[in-house]
Amino acid sequence: MTIETVGIVGAGQMGNGIAHVFALAGYEVLLNDINADALEKALAVIGKNLDRQVSREKISQADRDAAMARIKTTTKLIELGPTDLVIEAATERETVKQAIFEDLLPHLKPTTILTSNTSSISITRLASRTDRPEKFMGFHFMNPVPVMQLVELIRGIATDKETYETLLAVVDKLGKTAASAEDFPAFIVNRILMPMINEAVYVLYEGVGNVRSIDESLKLGANHPMGPLELADFIGLDTCLAIMNVLHDGLADTKYRPCPLLTKYVEAGWLGRKTGRGFYDYRGEVPVPTR
Ligand code: CAA
To answer: Where is the 3-hydroxyacyl-CoA dehydrogenase NAD binding domain (predicted)?
Structure first.
């Protein structure tokens, strides 16, 4: 099946990055969010990130303008009905995702491939509540989407070969690399990455190190581009906690218990960069550790 038009649900940090890379690869993109301000903000962010690619000579000004022209926005979910591929990139909460699918399904054409950018929720369970489990897949992008090379492809138990092969071809056209993961909690990347971040929060909680020493240790001692606490702030502490809970519940192993300090930051609404405060305070000129 050939994909030409793509509907993206959710214009947050993942949704706008996904819209960016699809538009740049020549797809017609319809970006949806319930919040009109979020759509406006997403277009501004995409424009800024495309400008950055122009200034670093990764793309031409004409590529940038053509990509922007391929992105349309809508606050009406049902307008995504006629697209060939839908990517749900809403909040990492199963009830939210399910409600979106329920509203969208009656308006989708029968051939549309339905995907979720979930970083951890069971694809088989999400698919089983739709009318097309064979055309449903996990399509997991990494943040920042325009920069990160990997896309995880997760087949549910019912996903058919044609759907999988269509998405492999899409990833190829995006110029990215696919990693296929089986449908078990948090798949590959987050199964490994989140326990490391959670352990870094335990190291902070137990006073073994502070925010700066923990991040410097992993940056300078293991050549990670960002320290684990800086990375947690970048991903969003609510997302990190949600993924740890999926691992803890889904694998029933105490080694995945979320650190109480991570829970406390989320309870405080200190969710990282997006709220201006997390393990660092971003409200001044330079980020300042909060512990
Ligand atoms: N859009 C377009 N380009 C961007 C960009 C964006 N949003 N953000 C950065 N870039 C580009 C820059 O233009 C720059 O390009 P060049 O190499 O051509 O110069 C390059 O990326 C590097 O950026 P910077 O020089 O500004 O900054 P940096 O060197 O500090 O790199 C980073 C920034 C790429 C984010 C790097 O710190 C990094 O790789 N961090 C780790 C990110 C990571 O681990 N992501 C995965 C998170 S897990 C996940 O997403 C899964 C999940 O489900 C939670």
So the answer is: 5-183
Which ligand 1 atom is nearest residue 148's CA? 45
Q: Residues for the chain: how many in total?
A: 291
Q: Which atom of ligand 1 is nearest to the CA of 20?
A: 1
Q: Contact at 8 Å (CB) between 139 and 153? A: yes
Query: Is pTM beyond 0.90 here?
Result: yes
Contacts of 13 (CB under 8 A, 6+ apart): 143, 144, 236, 274
Q: Bridge partners of 115?
A: 87, 137
Q: What is the pLDDT of residue 1?
A: 83
Residue labelled with tokens 């017609």:
28
The distance of Cα 74 from the centroid of its chain, to the nearest Å, equals: 20
- Supply the pLDDT for residue 129: 95
* pLDDT tens sequence across 54-110: 999 999 999 999 999 999 999 999 999 999 999 999 988 899 999 999 999 999 999
Query: SS3 for 24?
Result: helix
